[in-house]
Every structure is written in structure tokens, then in C-alpha cells.
Amino acid sequence: MAIRDKALQSEAFNQLKHVYDNRDSYLKTCREKGRKLIATMGCDVPDEILIAAGYLPVRVYGDIENDLKDADQYLEYSFDPVIRSQFQRIVDGTYHELCERIVISNSTDALIRIYFYLREIHNIEPNKKVPPVYFIDWLFTRTRMHQVRNEGTVERFIEEVEGWIGRELQPEEIIKASEICNNNRRALREFSKLRKGQFSKINGSEALVVIGSALFMDKEEHTKLVKQVIEDADKWDVVEGPKIFMTGSVQENTTLYDLIEEVGAVIVSEDHDWGDRHIDRDVDTKMDPVKAIVDRYMLRMFSSKKAFVSQRVESLVKAVEESEAEGVLFYFRIYEDSPSWDYPEQKAALRTIGKEEVCFEKQGLSIQEDSGDKDRMIKFVNDLKGGVNNEGKSG
Amino acid sequence: MKGKADNESGMRSKKTMEAASLASKYQKQWFKELHQRVDSGEPFAYLNADVPMEIFRAMDIPFVVNQWWAAICSAKQMSKRYFGFLKEAEYRDDLCSYCATAFAGSFDPNQEEGPWGGLPKPSMAITRLTCDSQGKIFELFSKNYGADFYPMENTVPLEAPDKWWEKAADRWEELYSEERLDAAVEELKRLIAFLELKTGKMFDENKLIHVMNLINEQEMYYKKVRDIIAEQSPAPAVITDTINAVMQAQWQRGTEWAVDHAKFFYDEIKGRVESGYKAVPNEKIRLMWIGRGLWFNLGFYQYFEEKYGAAFVWSMYLAMGADAYIRNHVEKDPLRALASRFIGMEDFLHMPPWNAQWFISEAKHNQIDGVVYLVPENCMQAVEGSYFITKMLEDEGIPVLQLKADPVDSRKWNQETMTEAVSDFIEKRIQK
Q1: Considering the domain boundaries, does residue B43 fall inside one?
Q2: For B218-256, how does the pLDDT look when each residue is reduced to its tens digit (9 = 90+)?
Q3: pTM
């Protein structure tokens, strides 16, 4: 199925897809137009503060085509393929050309190492073209004590950014930037509703394009286009096929979703950070802006990396039920191991609500076409269809 | 014996030091008494290694340390059995072997068949969130035993002070930002409140001061031992002597027994020097072992002593005791002194440049000719900048061999390949 012709006929969707498919050239254009870019790594760097300071926050991503020779030199085997690929693009100088700085959040422990490694490269290999790095050390345990510490962390980040721009950031500026981000998330949530329920209008690959492009674009420009896509999608056909919820590793491109949807399923939601988790929860603009930003990043949908098993079980069951998915696909990349500890209990909980599941572990950047995993995927989808394969035949 | 294991998994080391034998005897007796205390209804805590055990010691709450127990299970060749249970329960059996052994063992229907009668049933399990998996594993472990799960947060250093080992004992405030230390103290207070409620016991700061001072005394002996081994060539002891003697007592730190044992250990080493004892009589090469101890196969090191006169004289276990634990003048603010110890362990060991600088300093001090560096394949917590450590050591003229292995899981160990790798390293890069 992948991205449908109807979607490609939408001018707004096409514009988003163009950015999604040509991220670097879009960013180069922004830079040429005078925008100052900050690369962000990890899903917990508050865009709101960077936007308030006039920056365009852009998410670091990997390139599956890239030779990883530089990354392999620095990183141990335990780094997953996506982070390895992202690191390659940092140490090969790509982001030095594009961005003023890199801000990293501790959204997973591998990123803590990435921060230290980049800092060390600055120290012992100063000629390497790597932008300066800053680290945001969130605490994700949900207690008042940790919330208070996070407020200090955000205040220190604001002070740091003020140092970059040479002036104080006013609370109104942060509130205004928060509204811009909230509007974008709201529009994306409206859009994402079209994926769910009995008559899905959007498939998973299309959703990844629309949500993922938000990680690079000017938020206001993006919001306008998303609203237009919502209008356009009203005329799109209902997506047919078993509805699947995807949990686990981030998907920075549509390869995996294309493969699943080509065998006749549709991905209606996910809990990774290039999908529905990105748009969960707003910043409360009636609160003190620092406290509001902390609450948004600390209290949104549980992260597969940082949350405890019981939290992940509860969170997955809730998300699956809300999305009305019939089955759940677990997808874990090699060395991205911590969510594997959640799986057996999540599987048991899904069984109690009558949901089928399939699990792919130790994966590379995507499922290999010629691997047995693709056959397992096809069987899973066929089973959800009641034993009918893609050509409508039983078995 | 050409690197051949005397059992299917690895070589058992020959224990030659009385301090190590005494520690083994003591811990068996201590574990028996622990069983009795738990059987009589006392609360029992299961702690990850980076949890500040000093609080539990001061409150007289019996505890076992996760990584100590993993090492015991590994040394008793229990890994295969336990990870089999894990697989049956649909968990992956190839992850986090060092930290998940006890969780794997929690599925064993015959708990009493574990080492020394098995792990008593814990009433609480406490870990720090120093990696993404740790909290998940401890929560699952707690659930299996019906214990309370208590996580402690971890913070990341944004500063990189020079020569931490020169500041840790007296000038620890200079190692961390003020707010990071404040946060760690708050974390301790929160833990204390939890323990007081859970056990009904009061935390007495005076007892903590006593515990901290006992630890200072114990670690001072390790410092003296480290310095003797560093400066004596041939060395009076190698890591197969010191790892067991130090680690077993390290988990008992803060007790009178541990101080007495450390003194005994020091006296034994000093006695060896005085009597002209050489651990490797034909010592020609001095090696440093970076990484976790090869618990299931401590005998691995001995092959190289015999064949090449290559003595593994340095491991982090003795050296961390020497440099990382001591906090003088704790009376002023014992919780802050303790905070400065427990948050530093991750920084000292796993964060470049803190670790690389220390390894270089220790390599020079210990007259090291080469480094064998164990880099675990599936443990992000043990990932510590191997490129930077290797580069910085080699820039100082010290060759480094990286071994990819698992320190606990004997199933992943290939004795022949590893022996060849180290032999090759010695022959081509050290002997030349």
C-alpha cells in the first residue's frame, strides 16, 4: 500500500513529503535564508525554548545509505544502528555545515555516552568538524522531588540559550513559542485521529511523513500544511486491512511501515518518537513557562526506554485500545535492548484484552526483504485477516 | 595446560592468599546468618551495586548486592540454569547478564538449590537508574519475590574535573556542581524516609558517621596494598589474589570485620614483600585488566603468567578501593560525603575523560606494559569510551588489546580464541 496516489495528489502532503524526503536540502535552504539551526538529539529537548530564542530546532537523523566507518571507530558494538548512523552524520561533519550547536537529551542512556564522546572529540581531536554540544539531564521518575530538579535543569538550559543569543529570554517569548508548538501538536493530533477508528483515512506511512516532517520544519509553516492535509484527506479512500499498533524502536523513515502495509495491514498508531508519542501532551501556557515545559516533557506518554515495565504495560494497553488496533507489532533494533524487558508482560496483558501480537527483535534498520521475518510478518497479517492472504485466498 | 578450562566453562583460579580464603569463609557464614535473620522475619533488601549501601549498614538492614550475587552464581556455574528459566518465561536470555542473574534466578522453583541455600526472599529491591534496563529488571525482580521496588535517580556530570582521584578524599565538592550534590543528598533523604517507614527503624546520622569512618579505615589499607603492588616488581600479588580478597570484603564495607580483614590483607601482602615472595616469579611483563572481572574464569589469567611471565597486576577492584571510596572529615556533613561517593562511581569508571585519565595515571604508577580491556557486547552501562581510553593509553605508549566478552555469562566465552588473542597481543605488541 505504502503512500497512496490520493495522498500524493494533495499539494500540502506533497510539500511535507518533499521536506521529509529531502531533509538536508531543506535545511540548507533554511540556512541560506538566514535561519539559525540547532540540531537536537533525543526526543526531550524542549523545542519551545529554542524557538523562543529564534532558532529552528531540527532533529538529528541517520542515513541508512551512509558508510559508518567514522562511527565504528568511536562507538562500541552496543550502540543501536540508528544512533550509530546519527553519530556518523555528526562526526563526518554534516551537522557542522548545517547547525550552530547540538543539544542532546538523556532520552536513552546511549545518548549520555554520545554526549561524552562528542565532548571528548572536542577535547582531544579539536580539528574534527563537530558542533559544540550541550546536554539536558532530565529525571523521568515521577515524584515532586524530581520535578523540582527538572525545573532547575530547564532554567539552566534557558540560561545557556540566553548566553548563545546574548540576551535574556522573556517569559512571554517562551509562552508564545509554546503556543506555536501546541498548535502544531494539536493539528497533528487532529490529523492522527484520521488514522484511528473504523474508517481510517490515513495509513501509517503517510502519517510518518506528516508527523516526521514536523521535526525539521518551521512549526507554523508545518501547522498550516497539516491543516490542509486534514481537509484534503476527507476525500481520500478508507484504508482497508487489519489495524496494527506499532511499539518499540523509532522509525526515521517509512521503510518498515511500507513493508507492513504492502502486505495488507495498516499501522494506526505507535508509541515511538517519530510518530504519535511526539504529539502527546501540550505545554500549559497558563502556568509558569518553566514548570509547564517540565510537565510536558516529564509527564507525557511513557518512553519505551525510560519507563518501568508496569508503566509500559499500562501505557501500551491504553494506547492500543484507544487506537482500536487489532494487533500489536513489537519491533526492537539490535542493542536497543531495554524495551525487550517489557515485552513478556506486555504480551500477557495484550492477551487479556484479546489482542494478537508479533515480535521482531535484534533488528537492523528495517526488516530484510529476504529474511524469514518478512514471512512471519505476512503470516501475522494474514492471521489478523482471519487466515486470508493478500490475494484474498485462505491459508 | 594451554589455556584449557578444567570444567566446561572456565578455569577456576587457585586461591593462594589467606585473606581471600578468610573472606570466602566469612561470607558463607555471614550468608547463613542472613538466612537466619530473614527467616526470623527481618526485612531484607536487595541492592544494585551502585546503591549507597552505607545507609542500610547504618540502619542495620540486612542486604545483598546484586552484582556480588551474580558473581557468586557465576562462580558456582549457575548462569546456564538461571538463564534457562529466563528463556522459559519468554525473556531474552542474552541481555544484561551481570545485572539480570538474580532476576533469572527468581524463576527457579527450587530456590534452595541456589548457591549457599539460595537467595533469601527479599522484602525490598533498590536500584539506581544508571541505565535504561536497570529499573525494569529490578521492578520485575521485585514482582517475582513480592518485594517493594524502590528506584533512585541518577544524574549526569556536565563538568570534567582533572585528576578526580586527587580530590575525592578531601576536596570532593570540587568534583561536582553544587546543585548535583544537593540533588544527590535529597535522593538520600528520600531513601532514608522510605526505609524508616518500611522497616520501622530510625536512621541515626551518628551511626552513618561511624560506618563512613570504618570504610575510610578499610579503604586506606587497600590504598597501601595498591601502592605496594604498584611499586614492587615482581609484584607480591596479582589480580587473582586481590579480586577475591577485596571484592568479598568490599560488599561488607562499613563493618568492623571488613576493617580487620583489610588490615589482615595488607599485613599478608606486606609479609609477602618482606619474605621476598613473588606472585609470578618470572615476572617480565606487567598487565592491566580494564573492565569487570571474569568471574566464571578467574584462572584465565594464570596461563599467561606461566607461559610469558605476564602478571596481571592491576584491576579496578583494588584500585577503586584505593582511590574512590575514602571521604575524610565526614562528621561535617555525612550525607553529603556519602552523596559525593555514590554519584561519583559512575563518573569515575564509565565516563571519559574521568576514567581514561585515571587509567593512564594508574598504568604509569603500576609500571604497566600492556592493557587487556574487556568490552562487554550488550551492556550500555559498561560502555565507557573504549576508543578514547585506548587512544589515550596508546598515545602514552601503552599498548591496549580490546576483548569482546561477557564477564558473567560463560556461554559466550571461547577459551581458545581469547587465549590466542591475549597471547598474540603479548607476543606482537609487548614482547616485540
Answers
A1: yes
A2: 999 999 999 999 999 999 999 989 988 998 899 999 999
A3: 0.94
Question: In this structure, are A145 and A187 located in the same domain?
Answer: no
Cβ under 8 Å to B: A residues 98-117: 106, 108-110, 112-113, 115-117
One domain, residues A148 and A227: no
CATH at A231: 3.40.50.11900
Nearest Cβ partner for B140 among A306, A335, A341:
A341
Domain end call among A171, A195, A220? A171
- A residues 232-291 near B, CB within 8 Å? none
Asked whether residue B388 is domain-assigned, the answer is yes
More confident residue, A187 or A388: A187
Task: Establish if A70 touches chain B: CB-CB under 8 angstroms.
Answer: no
Residues of A in contact with B149 (CB under 8 A): 308
Q: What percent of chain A has pLDDT over 90?
A: 90
Q: Are residues A115 and A202 in the same domain?
A: no
A236 and A357 both lie in a single domain? yes
Same domain flag for A328 and A226: yes
**Confidence at A304, pLDDT banded by 50, 70, 90:** very high
* SS3 state at A349: helix
Residues A339 and A195 grouped into a single domain = yes
Q: Are residues A214 and A138 in the same domain?
A: no
Q: Domain range for residue A106?
A: 34-171
Q: Using the beta-carbon criterion (under 8 Å), do A139 and B392 form an inter-chain contact?
A: no
Residue B7, pLDDT score? 37
Instruction: Give the number of domains in chain A.
Output: 2
Asked if residue A16 is part of any domain, the answer here is no
Query: What pLDDT does B431 receive?
Result: 85
pLDDT of residue B410: 67
Q: Chain-wide mean pLDDT for chain A? A: 94
- Looking at the structure of chain B, the number of domains it has is 1
Contact assignment for A145 to B404 by CB distance below 8 Å: no
Q: Are residues A213 and A320 in the same domain?
A: yes
Asked if residue A66 belongs to a domain, the reply is yes
Q: Which of A109, A135, A309 lies closest to B140 in CB terms?
A: A309
What are B26-84's pLDDT values in tens digits? 999 999 999 999 999 999 999 999 999 999 999 999 999 998 899 889 888 898 899 99
B346 pLDDT tier (thresholds 50, 70, 90): confident
In a domain, A17, yes or no: no
- Please report, for the domain that includes residue A70, its CATH number: 3.40.50.11890
CB pairs under 8 A between A and B: 109
pLDDT band with cut points at 50, 70 and 90 for residue A261? very high
Average pLDDT score over residue span A334-360: 96
The band of A390, judged by pLDDT with boundaries at 50, 70 and 90, is low
